[in-house]
Design a protein that fits this description.
65% of the residues lie in helices and 0% in strands. By secondary structure, it is an all-alpha fold.
Length: 129
């Protein structure tokens, strides 16, 4: 059972990045609502999508270079989340959105940075199981 525990991190991480990345790539007009250049918005969407795919593929036993894929997944996600914190969520540290910060706090983004860094450093640690 413990050898499959990595999926408890991988699945929600992948789902989050797949949905956000696909949303950006399918609706580039949303860049304007975030006051962001479309090219940057699409680049972020691609990084999110690849991070999600990498988190899933890196967890599949027998997948080629899954350790590297896991590390690259984290490397794709970490700067995206650091940018989200710096550009959107700083200095709001609250679970509740308000008029000043309709996007809410940054605790979720901090958690995703932590998981991203874990994937970058640890890779597919479950490979020995």
């Amino acid at each position: 059972m413990a050898r499959h525990a990595h999926w408890l991190l991988r699945l929600p991480f992948a789902a989050t990045f797949l949905v956000h990345g696909a949303g950006k790539l399918l609706a580039p007009e949303m860049a304007a609502t975030m006051q962001m250049p479309t090219a940057l918005f699409l680049t972020i969407g691609a990084a999110e999508l690849l991070a999600g795919i990498g988190a899933l593929v890196g967890g599949i036993p027998g997948a080629p270079r899954r350790d590297l894929v896991t590390r690259l997944s984290g490397a794709a996600a970490a700067p995206v989340m650091l940018g989200a914190i710096a550009m959107v969520h700083w200095p709001q540290w609250s679970f509740v959105a308000n008029d000043a910060k309709p996007m809410g706090g940054m605790e979720f983004q901090v958690l995703l940075v932590g998981v991203s860094l874990y994937f970058m450093i640890a890779g597919a640690q479950d490979r020995a199981s």
